[in-house]
Amino acid sequence: MTDRGDRDAAPSQTLSRGIRVLEILADAREARSIDEIARELGVHRSIAYRLVRTLESHRVVSRDAAGRVALGARLAALAAGVAHDLQAEALPELTAVANDLGMTCFLAVLDGDECITLASVEPRHAVASVAQRPGARHSVSVGAPSKAILSTLDLHEWPVDAPDSLRADVAVAAERGYATSHDEVIPTVQAIAVPLRLGSPHRPAAIAVVHVARADDPDAVAERLRRSASVIRAALHG
After folding, report:
1. What is the DSSP annotation of 20-64?
2. How many of the other CB atoms lie within 10 Å of CB of 220?
3. What's the predicted TM-score (pTM) here?
């Protein structure tokens, strides 16, 4: 049993900074130098260096010959353990949707006030596709997956600062069974998402596709996503 003292204990600043380093690297499009990491953390270079060395010793980050830092391969093994059953059941369906529609298909889950990509599959033969990296996150107030997830939640579970425009978008999503977005998370990118209703112990989730060209028939895309959502749900609940 956890006592009140444990609950009220101040978080570890060092651990928080180490996690922040991982977030900085996950958001980066390329490896970062120690100096760049230090600037983003707002700490002296020596502190950033010690954090990187500790993370490197656990193989969750790596450094190249020039000393630039990137996420390490061990993170993939750690990430695979997150909602393992959900990822295992979802990946075949994400792959099927991506190849059927020629669009990147991904699974997103609610984490606090953020929507996080848990798994993603790009189409096999598409000339060009939008990358949606696992671990990518954004506010739950924007994006089609966020709206699809919010359409399944009570208002008291929403962000406290949700704008009226978001409520209107989610109401539309709830009525038609899918959500759309355009230029909300990534410029020029559009998305279509349906809720993935799994219940406890799983987090609220959605599956979605992203694309740069307007979908020929959003209703048809949403119906394809709904079929896969049903398959995933049935597999998880036996």
Report:
1. HHHHHHHH-SS-B-HHHHHHHHTS-HHHHHHHHHHHHHTTSEEE-
2. 12
3. 0.74
